Amino acid sequence: MNFRIPRGTVDLMPGEVEKWQYIEEKARDLCRRYHFSEIRTPIFEQTELFQRGVGETTDIVEKEMYTFTDRGGRSLTLRPEGTAGVVRSFVEKKIFGEPQPTKWFYIGPMYRYERPQAGRQRQFHQFGIEVFGTTDPALDAELIDLGWQFYRSVGLEGVKVDLNSVGCPECRPVHRTRLIEYLTPHKEALCKDCLSRLDRNPMRILDCKNESCQRVTEHAPRMVDHLCENCRPHFESVKESLDLLGVDYRLNTRLVRGLDYYTQTAFEFILEGQGGQAGSVGGGGRYNGLVEEIGGPEMPAIGFGLGLERVMLALESQKVELPLSKEVDCFLVTLGEEAKKCSITLLKELRQAGCSAERDYLDRKMKGQLKAADRAHARFVAILGENELKENRIVVKEMATGEQEAIQLNKLVEYVRQVRKG
Ligand SMILES: [Zn+2]
Ligand SMILES: [Zn+2]
Q1: 40 phi/psi in degrees, rounded to 5
Q2: What CATH number is given to the structural domain containing 105?
Q3: Domain range enclosing 40
Q4: Ligand nearest, relative to CA of residue 207
Q5: 199-228 burial by CB neighbour count: b if 16+ within 10 A, else e?
Q6: Are 101 and 83 in contact, with CB atoms under 8 Å apart?
Q7: What distance in angstroms lies between residue 14's CA and the mean position of ligand 2's atoms?
Q8: How many Å lie between the centroid of ligand 1 and the Cα of residue 148?
Q9: Cα radius of gyration (the chain)
Q10: Per-residue confidence (pLDDT) for residue 148, from 0 to 100
C-alpha cells in the first residue's frame, strides 16, 4: 500500500516551514503592537454554527464544507473560516458582559472542499482579526491599516485596499428597491446566476465577473449614494482616518457582501498577481448583526481574514528574500573518545546559554565532521582534540572568514554567546 497525502493538502517541509514561521511572527508582532490578544478556537464546531454564521445559501455552506457525524451522532464541521467560531466563543463565554472593546486575532488552518489550484488548498491558513463592542470608525480604519501593514511587513509591495460601505438594515432596502427597478428592464443581459439573484440578493449582481452583467451594472444605483444618516458620516470618517494613516485605498462600489449581517465598512486587499492580474488576497468588514445571529446580544463587530497561502505565492512571484537564518551557532568537532565525552556537557552548556549547538553522531572522521558542520550552516566550528583537551583549550573557527584561534575551554560558551549577541 502506498500512502499519499490527501488531495488539496501539502506537507510544509523544513526549509519551507521557516517562511511560515516568519510571516506568522510578523502577524503576531503587529497584533501585539496594536494590542490584540490571540484566541485559539477548535478546528471543528457544530455544523449549525456555520449554517448560521456563514450563511445557508453561500457556496461555502452549500458545497464546500467538510461535515461528518461523530460517534455520538453529532453533526460536526471542520471550520471553513475563522469568524463563526470566534463569535461563538465570544457569546458562549459571555465576553460581551465585560468592558469593551474586545480585540482578538487568530492564525490557523481552515478547510474547504474546493478544486485545488495555485494558492487554493483544501486545508489552507488564515490570519484573522475580530473586534467586538465598538462602532468607532477610527477602529475600522485602524484594522484596515493593520492588514495593510501586515503585507508590507513581510516585504510585499503594491497591495491596495478596495473600500466600500454596504449600508445597514435601515438604508439597504432603499438601495435594493432602486437596484431592482434599474436592473429589471435589462434582465435579458444578465447571466443565469444574476437572474436568480435579482429577487433574492440583487447587490451580488454588482459583484458578478460576467462582462455583460458588468456593462449592465456600470451605471447602476450605488449603495454609497443611499447611505442613511448613520452610515454616511461613519463611512466619511473611515475614509478620513485612512487618509490620516496614509493607507492606499480606492472606492470600489462593486464590493459587496452577500449576507444581511454585514453592515457599513467592507474592504478587500488587492494584489497584482503574475501576469498583471489583480486578485483579492484577503478582506473583511463590519458585521454588526452577527453576534445576535449567533445568539448573543446586539453588539457591533468588525474583522478580516487574510489567506496566508496567497501571501506565500505573492512572496514567491515578487521574489522577496525573507531574512531567514538556518545557522547553527556552534558545531563541535571532536577527535578521540575523551573529547567526545567532553562534548556532551559542552553541548548542553551552549544550549543552556541560548546558543544553538550541534555535533556529529555517526563517528565521522575530522573531514566528515567539518562537512557536516558546513551542511548545518555552522557559524563557528569548535575543534577539540586530545592535545587541546590536555591544555584545557579549544580551537574556534569562524566558517565565513576561516579565521581561527585557540581559547580556554571554559570560555567557549561565553565566546559563542557574545558573538551571537553582537
Ligand atoms: Zn444605514
Ligand atoms: Zn452575472
Answers
A1: -120, 105
A2: 3.30.930.10
A3: 17-171+227-317
A4: 2
A5: eebbbbbbbbebeebeebbeebbbbbebbb
A6: no
A7: 44
A8: 26
A9: 28
A10: 96
Torsion (CA) 107, 110, 115, 119 in degrees, nearest 10: 0
User: Average pLDDT in the 182-200 region?
Assistant: 91
In this structure, which residues have their CB less than 5 angstroms from ion ligand 1?
A: 167-168, 170-171, 228, 231
- C-alpha angle 147-149-151 in degrees, rounded to nearest 5: 75
Of 269, 288, 317, the last residue of a domain is 317
Q: Which residue has the cell 478587500?
A: 268
- DSSP single-letter state for residue 269: E
Residue 340 scores a pLDDT above 80 = yes
Do 249 and 376 belong together in one domain?
Answer: no
The rounded Å distance from CA 343 to ligand 1 centre is 71
Q: What mean pLDDT is predicted for residues 410-415? A: 95
Burial of 270 (0-12, 13-18, 19+ CB in 10 A): buried
pLDDT tens per residue across span 346-386: 999 999 999 999 999 999 999 999 999 999 999 999 999 99
